[in-house]
Amino acid sequence: MTILFDIGNVLLRFDYKEALHALIPADLGDAAARLQLLDEKREDLESGRIAADDFIQWALQTLGTQASAEQFIAAWRSIFTPIPETWALVEKLHQLGHRLILFSNINAIHHPWIFDAYPGFEKFHGAVMSYEIGVMKPHDGFYQWAVREYELVPEETFYIDDLPANIETGRKWGFFCHQYDFLRHDALLEDFAKYRASMR
After folding, report:
1. Is residue 127 within a helix (H) or strand (E), and if so which, with residue range?
2. pLDDT, tens digit, 9 for 90 and up, residues 28-43
3. Selecting from 3.20.20.300, 3.20.20.220, 3.40.50.1000, 3.40.920.10, what CATH number does the domain 2-13+82-199 have?
4. Can you give the pTM of this predicted structure?
Protein backbone atom coordinates (compact mmCIF):
# COMPACT_ATOMS: atom_id res chain seq x y z
CA MET A 1 0.00 0.00 0.00
CA THR A 2 1.26 3.48 -0.93
CA ILE A 3 0.09 6.73 0.63
CA LEU A 4 0.73 10.01 -1.21
CA PHE A 5 0.91 13.10 1.00
CA ASP A 6 0.66 16.66 -0.24
CA ILE A 7 2.72 19.01 1.96
CA GLY A 8 0.98 22.40 1.97
CA ASN A 9 -2.11 22.44 4.22
CA VAL A 10 -1.79 18.69 4.75
CA LEU A 11 1.48 18.33 6.65
CA LEU A 12 2.28 22.04 7.01
CA ARG A 13 -0.13 24.96 7.02
CA PHE A 14 1.24 28.02 5.25
CA ASP A 15 0.58 31.72 4.72
CA TYR A 16 2.77 33.60 2.25
CA LYS A 17 1.06 36.95 2.50
CA GLU A 18 1.63 37.68 6.18
CA ALA A 19 5.34 36.88 6.01
CA LEU A 20 5.98 38.85 2.82
CA HIS A 21 3.77 41.81 3.70
CA ALA A 22 6.28 42.76 6.39
CA LEU A 23 8.93 43.33 3.69
CA ILE A 24 6.88 45.93 1.78
CA PRO A 25 7.47 49.59 2.77
CA ALA A 26 4.35 50.99 4.43
CA ASP A 27 4.29 54.08 2.21
CA LEU A 28 3.83 52.15 -1.06
CA GLY A 29 0.11 51.67 -0.52
CA ASP A 30 -0.44 48.84 -2.99
CA ALA A 31 0.81 45.89 -0.97
CA ALA A 32 -2.08 43.60 -1.93
CA ALA A 33 -1.44 44.05 -5.65
CA ARG A 34 2.28 43.37 -5.23
CA LEU A 35 1.60 40.21 -3.23
CA GLN A 36 -0.85 39.07 -5.90
CA LEU A 37 1.87 39.39 -8.54
CA LEU A 38 4.15 37.22 -6.40
CA ASP A 39 1.44 34.62 -5.97
CA GLU A 40 0.93 34.45 -9.74
CA LYS A 41 4.69 34.22 -10.41
CA ARG A 42 5.04 31.45 -7.83
CA GLU A 43 3.79 28.94 -10.41
CA ASP A 44 6.87 29.66 -12.55
CA LEU A 45 9.08 28.93 -9.54
CA GLU A 46 7.21 25.78 -8.54
CA SER A 47 7.24 24.40 -12.07
CA GLY A 48 10.95 25.07 -12.50
CA ARG A 49 10.45 27.65 -15.26
CA ILE A 50 12.45 30.25 -13.34
CA ALA A 51 15.56 29.71 -11.21
CA ALA A 52 15.31 30.51 -7.50
CA ASP A 53 17.93 33.29 -7.68
CA ASP A 54 16.14 34.96 -10.59
CA PHE A 55 12.80 34.72 -8.78
CA ILE A 56 14.26 36.27 -5.63
CA GLN A 57 15.64 39.27 -7.52
CA TRP A 58 12.35 39.72 -9.36
CA ALA A 59 10.40 39.43 -6.09
CA LEU A 60 12.54 42.05 -4.33
CA GLN A 61 11.89 44.51 -7.17
CA THR A 62 8.19 43.69 -7.28
CA LEU A 63 7.78 44.17 -3.54
CA GLY A 64 9.63 47.49 -3.71
CA THR A 65 11.59 46.43 -0.66
CA GLN A 66 15.06 47.27 0.59
CA ALA A 67 15.35 43.79 2.09
CA SER A 68 18.27 41.61 1.11
CA ALA A 69 17.99 38.30 -0.72
CA GLU A 70 18.77 36.56 2.58
CA GLN A 71 15.94 38.42 4.34
CA PHE A 72 13.53 37.50 1.56
CA ILE A 73 14.52 33.83 1.79
CA ALA A 74 14.03 33.90 5.58
CA ALA A 75 10.54 35.39 5.12
CA TRP A 76 9.68 32.96 2.32
CA ARG A 77 10.64 30.07 4.59
CA SER A 78 8.85 31.38 7.69
CA ILE A 79 5.38 30.61 6.35
CA PHE A 80 4.90 27.09 7.71
CA THR A 81 3.16 25.66 10.77
CA PRO A 82 3.15 21.86 11.26
CA ILE A 83 -0.21 20.08 11.50
CA PRO A 84 0.30 17.66 14.43
CA GLU A 85 -2.58 15.34 13.52
CA THR A 86 -1.25 14.42 10.10
CA TRP A 87 2.29 14.01 11.43
CA ALA A 88 0.91 11.55 13.98
CA LEU A 89 -0.69 9.65 11.09
CA VAL A 90 2.63 9.64 9.21
CA GLU A 91 4.31 8.08 12.23
CA LYS A 92 1.62 5.41 12.55
CA LEU A 93 1.67 4.53 8.86
CA HIS A 94 5.45 4.36 8.89
CA GLN A 95 5.38 1.97 11.84
CA LEU A 96 2.88 -0.20 9.97
CA GLY A 97 5.32 -0.46 7.09
CA HIS A 98 3.37 1.42 4.42
CA ARG A 99 5.24 3.21 1.63
CA LEU A 100 4.90 6.98 2.06
CA ILE A 101 5.61 9.41 -0.78
CA LEU A 102 5.50 13.21 -0.77
CA PHE A 103 3.41 14.63 -3.61
CA SER A 104 3.92 18.38 -3.72
CA ASN A 105 3.90 21.57 -5.73
CA ILE A 106 7.01 23.10 -4.18
CA ASN A 107 10.01 25.26 -5.06
CA ALA A 108 13.79 25.25 -4.71
CA ILE A 109 13.72 27.78 -1.85
CA HIS A 110 11.67 25.41 0.31
CA HIS A 111 13.14 22.10 -0.82
CA PRO A 112 15.36 20.50 0.40
CA TRP A 113 15.60 23.07 3.24
CA ILE A 114 12.22 21.94 4.55
CA PHE A 115 13.58 18.46 5.29
CA ASP A 116 16.08 19.87 7.78
CA ALA A 117 13.68 22.42 9.26
CA TYR A 118 10.89 19.99 10.17
CA PRO A 119 11.57 16.54 11.64
CA GLY A 120 9.59 13.62 10.28
CA PHE A 121 10.29 13.86 6.58
CA GLU A 122 12.80 11.03 6.94
CA LYS A 123 9.78 8.72 7.32
CA PHE A 124 9.02 9.15 3.61
CA HIS A 125 10.35 6.72 1.02
CA GLY A 126 10.28 9.13 -1.89
CA ALA A 127 9.07 12.48 -3.18
CA VAL A 128 7.52 13.95 -6.31
CA MET A 129 8.45 17.65 -6.38
CA SER A 130 6.98 19.88 -9.07
CA TYR A 131 10.01 22.13 -9.63
CA GLU A 132 12.23 19.07 -10.13
CA ILE A 133 10.05 17.39 -12.75
CA GLY A 134 8.88 20.57 -14.53
CA VAL A 135 5.14 20.10 -14.10
CA MET A 136 2.63 20.93 -11.37
CA LYS A 137 -0.52 19.38 -10.03
CA PRO A 138 -3.26 19.14 -11.22
CA HIS A 139 -1.68 18.54 -14.66
CA ASP A 140 -1.67 14.92 -15.76
CA GLY A 141 2.07 14.95 -16.33
CA PHE A 142 2.72 15.21 -12.60
CA TYR A 143 0.68 12.09 -11.88
CA GLN A 144 2.04 10.27 -14.90
CA TRP A 145 5.62 10.91 -13.72
CA ALA A 146 4.79 9.60 -10.23
CA VAL A 147 3.09 6.44 -11.51
CA ARG A 148 6.06 5.66 -13.73
CA GLU A 149 8.82 6.57 -11.29
CA TYR A 150 7.36 4.78 -8.28
CA GLU A 151 5.47 2.05 -10.16
CA LEU A 152 2.24 3.05 -8.45
CA VAL A 153 -0.69 0.68 -8.63
CA PRO A 154 -3.65 3.12 -8.62
CA GLU A 155 -6.08 0.88 -6.73
CA GLU A 156 -3.41 0.34 -4.07
CA THR A 157 -2.67 4.07 -3.69
CA PHE A 158 -4.29 6.43 -1.16
CA TYR A 159 -3.83 10.12 -2.00
CA ILE A 160 -4.26 13.06 0.43
CA ASP A 161 -4.43 16.65 -0.88
CA ASP A 162 -6.29 19.81 0.14
CA LEU A 163 -7.18 21.17 -3.32
CA PRO A 164 -10.24 19.95 -5.26
CA ALA A 165 -8.56 20.16 -8.68
CA ASN A 166 -5.67 17.97 -7.53
CA ILE A 167 -8.06 15.43 -6.05
CA GLU A 168 -10.09 15.38 -9.26
CA THR A 169 -7.02 14.44 -11.30
CA GLY A 170 -6.03 11.86 -8.70
CA ARG A 171 -9.42 10.19 -9.04
CA LYS A 172 -9.03 10.22 -12.82
CA TRP A 173 -5.81 8.25 -12.35
CA GLY A 174 -7.64 5.73 -10.19
CA PHE A 175 -6.26 6.68 -6.77
CA PHE A 176 -8.40 6.46 -3.63
CA CYS A 177 -8.48 10.17 -2.77
CA HIS A 178 -9.23 12.28 0.28
CA GLN A 179 -9.54 16.07 0.18
CA TYR A 180 -8.02 17.13 3.48
CA ASP A 181 -9.34 19.82 5.81
CA PHE A 182 -7.32 20.20 9.02
CA LEU A 183 -10.53 21.26 10.79
CA ARG A 184 -12.03 17.85 9.93
CA HIS A 185 -9.10 15.52 10.53
CA ASP A 186 -11.42 12.71 11.65
CA ALA A 187 -12.83 12.58 8.11
CA LEU A 188 -9.38 11.57 6.87
CA LEU A 189 -9.15 8.77 9.42
CA GLU A 190 -12.62 7.55 8.45
CA ASP A 191 -11.76 7.52 4.75
CA PHE A 192 -8.49 5.72 5.39
CA ALA A 193 -10.33 3.08 7.45
CA LYS A 194 -12.73 2.53 4.54
CA TYR A 195 -9.78 2.25 2.17
CA ARG A 196 -8.01 -0.33 4.30
CA ALA A 197 -11.23 -2.32 4.61
CA SER A 198 -11.62 -2.32 0.83
CA MET A 199 -8.10 -3.74 0.45
CA ARG A 200 -8.80 -6.86 2.52
Report:
1. strand 126-129
2. 889 999 999 999 999 9
3. 3.40.50.1000
4. 0.95
